[in-house]
């Protein structure tokens, strides 16, 4: 078996629909190598030097009943999230609880993604400072 020295790992992402982890290994002599492995296979890549094993992911909340009447809103606590850019389509993908039975997602146009990011920061700041919150 031949070995290859890796200088860095970049472009890490997890595809929620296939549960495949994708990343690029940056090497000095062989160029960049694209890798795709099942998410479960990431455990084999952890540090074997005796360091603590990664903490298990929190369990997702049970599915929330869907709103059935106009004006109702279904909400669930997100224990993990994922955001990924899709430059080809010019959108940003946001996934709540990726890989869980309760995963949900949506895409935003770039302008809307920026507005959502600003609103999230504004609302978080309001909670941290105790300032009255206003709808964004």
Strand line-up across the major sheet: 1-2-3
Rg computed from alpha carbons, rounded to a whole number of angstroms: 19 Å
From the structure provided, what is the oligomeric state, counting identical versus distinct chains? single chain
Mean pLDDT level: 79
Structural class by sheet pairing and helices: alpha+beta
The largest β sheet comes out as: 3 strands, antiparallel
What gap, in angstroms, lies between the N and C termini?
Answer: 57 Å
Form type = elongated
Measured by DSSP, the beta-strand proportion falls in 25-35%
Provide the low-confidence segments as ranges: none
Number of strands: 6
Total count of helical runs of at least 4 residues: 1
The share of residues in helices is: 10-25%
Description:
- This protein is of the alpha+beta class and 136 residues long.
- It has a domain at 1-43.
- The protein has one helix and six strands.
- The strands form two sheets. Strands 1-2-3 form a three-stranded antiparallel beta sheet, with no helix packed on it. A three-stranded antiparallel beta sheet has the order 4-5-6.
- β1 (6-15) and β2 (20-27) form a beta hairpin.
- It starts with 5 loop residues before the first strand and ends in a 7-residue tail after the last helix.
